[in-house]
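Changelog excerpt

This revision adds worked examples to the README so contributors can see how folded entries look when concatenated. The first example is reproduced verbatim below.
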Amino acid sequence: MQKKESELIDQAVNGDKKVLESLLLSVQDMIYNLSLRMLGSPQDAEDAVQEIMIKIITQLSTFRKESTFSTWAYRVATNYLINCKKSMFAQRPLSFEFYGQDINMGVVPNTEDLLQGVEEEILADELKASCTNVMLQCLDPESRCIYVLGLMFKADSRVCGEILGLTAEAYRQRLSRIRKKVAAFLGEYCGLSGTGKCNCQKRVGYAILTHRLNPGNLEYRSLEKLDHSTTAEFTEAMEEMDRLSSVFTQLPQYRSPLDAKSFLNKLLKSDSMDVIRTES
């Protein structure tokens, strides 16, 4: 850890609210994107970011500075997300077998009544963003985290191992096995891979009919996207991406809807903050 970052951590622990806010802002977007991929829905992700931010604040004094702050924050986030039971998909787990069967049966005509005046292409883009995140829910939480960190965030295997408590080699081996499993499903079912049978545009009507897509509430379209240069500041290239996995690497990263400054101000002024300080 650089001396400057170490000093900032000390200042935040000693009660400097502006420094604490700056530290939170430095990681909140990537924590939101990690939460979105891990939990599968924007609302669950936003709720998770708030919970994770509280954990970062209350555990900051225990940070031993043996890694960068961002790596430590990711570790706090992954521990929470792997064990999170509050999300929709934690309550209703998916499998690749179920998802494949759903794709096989899920096509209905995209009628005007179903589209509700929204362009078919816009709805197809929304479905693509939703479907790819939902598809990840077919993996168990730890495997999902390994895949997301390595192939979607392109994080270095040593850093990923450090976050998950694995050696770099153990992490690479597990990532390789998970990648093959996901690639097999993508190759058979996902049209974005170039070989799969599914087509986002053709699935729009079925998604609306089954209440998986709401033309009146396009959650992903309302999110602000991060540009690639901003995303690159957080991660390092890991290894050559295979063709099928690029379905996920091409997805946009989003800016967290959470207003960290407002959230922090409300938290520090709340009655519950005394309890949080006591627990920390």
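The second example, added in the same revision:
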Amino acid sequence: MRILVVNVNTTDSMTKTIGEQAMTAASPGTEIVPLTPAFGADSVEGNYESHLAAIAVMETVRSYPEPFDAVIQAGYGEHGREGLQELLDVPVVDITEAAAATAQFLGRSYSVITTLDRAVPLIEDRLLLAGLSARCASVRASGMPVLELERDPAAAVEAIAEEAARAVEQDRAEVICLGCGGMSGLSERVVERTGVPVVDGVAAAVTIAESLVRLGLTTSKVRTYAPPRPKQFRAWPMAV
């Protein structure tokens, strides 16, 4: 089984971190292929960058030359999953939805801890669109920019753990979701600080993708995710 794990930003070191977390969660015999888009922002922290990332991720997957069995979109609250589902028959799993869906098996309510406050509405909208918002106690921002997770990991971990503790104590969350692909590998400190289960979206997405492939399930093409209709694309250099 081969699973493509696509970072939404162009920071190679973050792709490496995401890939390592995916490999840790993967079963024997599953090949994880981490991919970095050829264009886009070095971090995605708003709607403009997110829409650009959606195009970049779709083009990265569309141009991948080898067969694959599933795709993971490794960006939290980002656009583009629906477009990938139109382009592909294989399962497409978004880490935002994977983390929230997994959290609902572990407790009555969950909270998401993300990076900057401006990312909160994007995540809230994604959860609402996916039908996963009813049991979301809160989406909280740690105040740490995405790239700061690598530049100052100790401060980032502490800020995330502190905000997670507030979600448990003030919002009554029973499960914490790490709300950024770059937070992969930070679960242990948050568990120590909060005492509740902590879901890493990349790891959750890998296990869900594997399950869908093993069940022989594919993306429905009857209506919403039917393939794009053939059209002329004016001045679009990557058009088929």
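Reviewer comment on example two: The chain has a mean pLDDT of 92. The beta strands are 2-7, 31-35, 70-74, 92-94, 110-114, 136-141, 175-178, 198-200.
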